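Morning!

This is the sequence you dropped in the shared folder:
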Amino acid sequence: MKFKSEFLNEIKERGFIYQDTDIINLDNLISKNKISGYIGFDITSDSLHVGSLIQLMLLHWLDFYGHKSICLIGGGTTLIGDPSGKDETRKILTKEEIDKNIGNIKQIFSRFINLNKDALIINNYDWLSKLNYIDFLREFGSKITLNRMLTFESVKSRLDREQPLTVLEFNYMLLQAYDFVYLNKNYNCILQMGGSDQWGNILSGVDLIRKINKKDAYGITSPLITNSDGSKMGKTASGAIWLNKNKISSLDFFQFWRNVNDNDVSKFLYLFTKLPINEIVKLSALKNQEINEAKKILAYEVTKIVRGKDDADEALEIANNTFNSKIIDERLPNISQKELDIKNENFSILDAIEKLNLVKSRSEIKRLIKSDGVKVNDQIYKNSSLSLKEYLGSKEIKISIGKKRIGILKIL
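The structure's back. Tokens below.
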């Protein structure tokens, strides 16, 4: 199906649309008018990770085609916790913790939307904190039934597993629906987008706007993005792949994309780059060894969007030096250690890997050594004593974890 709207055609062709409400009428409307649309982001950490990337790209394309993109920061709703897609109740953060997280996260939005033009960052704490609970229940509580909430997959799956779902979390759904009503009334926002786990909450908002504001509103969800093996995208043995630079280096971020499964390359090019569709079609046709070129392009393009061109150029150069030219690049993670310490075995390979921040736990390092996942100077490390004495002939010791992570130990 071909839409009249450039925005809808773009996101459909790239694979962003999973569910929608009355998309034909939405298409008719936005093909003739500029609209406002939003996506909400809970502030449970001091950085977003790649699991939020599909939502950020949706806002980017809305902004790109001249519509108003609104990033709704859940300063209020994060105080409660979203039950969607969760196995257990989230940890409740303090207001101070949430405000600190907001300060760290705001910077990432400017990479995707033009905050100097029409795009906005809004915090729902600004209105949710002023609600009178009795008045709120009188006006909105009767408009959404528990019967309907219980049919939402995010709720139903928790109850099916006999896992607790608190009244606090039920209120989250009501507050998110109210967010849409508020934005519709005060910002003429008619579109909410989000992940497929937000479908029930979006439907509640659309329904509430119809009942309270007497207007039409629309919703679009994107598919849950997993790796080809079914695992959750962005979760690795070494932890989450964060968007903020202070959480993970641009080289490690680049290498995450450079080493994705061959079967994921085409999907990720469509979703996470701004490359023209015809170029992606060509790259998607590459097979066997040639697909590595597509992976490099994917890694470069995503890093350029998230971290900027300078960081993408540097990450590409370091990766080429390290993995293609076998040059020890001084910009790799590195630490210095006295030769005496290594001779006395007071400083083991466990210490080196830990201080280089290549692996988070010592037990994981030991497991990797046993499974031949650690190399020293490009040779598999097999020393049961965990010593590094035998490598003292060189002033620099290269330590590799798999194909992705490399650090340099400098001997003083």
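Headline: The domain at 6-222 is CATH 3.40.50.620 (Rossmann fold).

More detail when I'm at my desk.
O.
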